[in-house]
Fold:
Amino acid sequence: MSSELPTDHEGFWRRQFSLSRTHLQLVFDVTFGVLMPIVCFYLDPGIIGGSISASFLHLNVLVYTLSILAIITLSLWLTIGHRAKSSGGIFGGILLVGAVTSFVIGLVILPLTLIGIFFIIGILGFVPFITAFVYLRNGVKAIRQAGSALGRSALIGAILSSAVVISALPVIAQWEANYVVVQSVDEILGEDSIAAAGAVQRVKYFRWIVDTDRIVLAYQQESENERRDRLARAYKEITGEDIEMRL
Structure:
């Protein structure tokens, strides 16, 4: 019996990364690679959104964009991947980036996940680790499939180029969004009421990456009633909530 265990173990892992796909694997990949990530983002109590944890407050665009691209890529791979020979390297590069992104998300929120277990919903915090495995498995399959149609250098080039492009675009978008938000909040906190009003209108579209607590702290420290009222109105317009409740 002991001599058979290693063979069984190797057989299991070979099945996970083999080019063939079982029906159960397909169901598992769709569930934890597509559906559950969407459910987790939808039910997010503020961990990614920033109202509970500031870990992703200035990385929301990056996290959401990379996650969406990974979900779309996995969906395409599961649908038409068997026909994608030489382009498998591109699929593989994107899915590997998605695997790293999901694993990092799971790692960062792990302390909150362990606390949230007592409230049941915290179990969802382990989903990113499972999703990372799904992306890794399919990324490896895509690369192996492309390896039969491409040379070594071409395959490596396809993997690296797709990974760099798919990572660079969200990073640039995140940098631009952060710049607009920081500038707008500075104007809201400034003395120019006209500029502040325009800044409020701009920042409303980036509510989910705005550190609105800067406005709350400025309100708390302000002694002039007129400016306090302006800050309270700005906070209300951006968040839809009363600043005194947040304070």
Remarks:
- The two ends are 65 Å apart (CA to CA).
- The mean pLDDT is 83.
- Residues 181 and 210 are 6 Å apart (CA to CA).
